[in-house]
Amino acid sequence: MAEEIRRALVEAVGVAKSYGDGQTAVHALKPATCIIHAEDQIAIVGRSGSGKSTLLHLFAGLDDPTGGTLTWPLLGAKDDLRPGKVSVVFQSPSLVPWLDVIENVALPLALASSKEDGMPAAMRALERFGLQDLAGKLPEELSGGQAQRVALARAIVTGPKLILADEPTGQLDHVTGTAIVEALSEWSKANGCAVVIATHDANVAARMNEVWRMDHGTLTLETESLLA
């Protein structure tokens, strides 16, 4: 009964991703089975090139698996995932250069054809990460760390059910990175949102409830966080 109540946001069964054919094929993700439930907080750890980004892109519906099945039971069809239900934070902030900070944060609401006035929601998201004073600046006026924090604010503005973040603290110092992950974690808990973070940082992983490991395309699930 408990498992039935905790229906899956994402369910992967034997999901694999390869590039190329035959002996020259690159197996970025070997067959993996896993579930992301509502309100899960998961860290995916592993070396660069281990397959973490590949797995996140599949979860987000940005890429298609070459094997297995991938579904989004509580979220619907793949084409309906973004920008409302699933938010993705990439390794680079990928802000629109001709939009100022608040316009960048409000952009997902516009793309989702939201009837909500995007600016108040965008300002609330900026305030969550202490960025309200940067609202009128262009991306070129931001440091790398500031731009990444803006990308995190943009990720929460639609009130998604799932946030997938790829090395979100890679451009931040330890203190700032820890504070940002804590802010994201608190927001997700308050809003019933699941968070999956791919990270090299053990301190970031320790703040998640569950740790998954990637090694040369092989996914291993662990049941306890690094703090346990």
Structural description of this entry:
The strands form two sheets. This protein has a six-stranded mixed β-sheet, sandwiched between helices. It has a single domain, classed as 3-Layer(aba) Sandwich (Rossmann fold). With 228 residues, the protein is α/β, with parallel strands linked by helices. The chain is built from seven helices and nine strands; from the N terminus they run αβββαββαααβαβαββ. The two termini are 26 Å apart.
Topology:
Layout: H1 2-5, E1 8-19, E2 26-37, E3 41-45, H2 52-59, E4 67-71, E5 86-89, H3 101-111, H4 118-128, H5 144-156, E6 162-166, H6 174-191, E7 194-199, H7 202-206, E8 210-215, E9 218-221
Parallel strand pairs: 3-7, 3-8, 5-6, 6-7
Antiparallel strand pairs: 1-2, 1-4, 8-9
Helix pairs in contact: 3-4, 3-5, 4-5
